[in-house]
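anyone seen this seq b4? input:
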Amino acid sequence: MSRHLTVFLAAAVICGAVSTAHAITPLVIDDFDNPATAAQYFTLDTNSSPDFTQWAPKGKVLIEHTGTDAAGVPGGERDVFIDVTVGSALIYSASGEVGNGHFDFVTSHRTGTQAILQYDGEDTDSETGLLFSNGLNLDLTQGGDNDAFIVAFDQVVGGLASSSGTRTDLQLKVQVTGAGGTAEATTTVADSGGPTEAIIPFADFTGGNPFADASSVTVWFNSNSALGVDLTVDYIGTTSAPEPSTIAMLGMLLCFAGGWGYRRWRKRS
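predicted toks r here
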């Protein structure tokens, strides 16, 4: 066997290993497939659904999905809490849909409204805010394979930092609790008219290390209460963070060397 063919085969093996290392299937916490028959519409100006709990002065909406409406969701319940935190709640301060494969959230340009999704098992939340019943027993690392939190969007439009019209990217906050303590991270997501992802490595979280045995996961959308946000979420989960590494760089170099060597070998043979 020629030296160049040996290099080519070695490069192929290493390239395959590198590809496999970055092809880990994400752990999906919520893909919003349920409610399956139709997405559940919510808005701050109405309380037409028995699944809604809404409080005067119509600044907060709570949706608790359980049973088949939360099929596949860790802990058996999805809590959706819509909260006007800047300005007075107005008609259509915020609206959206949950289910049928997506989570939509739209806010007005006159109020700052946050959407909070929480996964902590079945409980009874209240107007004062979401409880932390810590009802999960979830390994977000999937045995050490995953090292980052991911939120996949179908589209994102950030809001206005103030009524003056200064644009700001969507702010996203994630909190995880568990036996290892409480960990939090905040990031921003740039505007995108199509699919995009927010990936937060566990190493970027501050606080404890609860990822291997999480008891609750909470995600704040528009955590800085910007005005006029519009977003659609495809799924929430964990994954392996893509990052340059020594073996990846070596793999690329060997792929190049292997290809070059193989072409020379073919010419000579």
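The chain has a mean pLDDT of 79. The longest strand covers residues 77-86. kinda curious what u guys think
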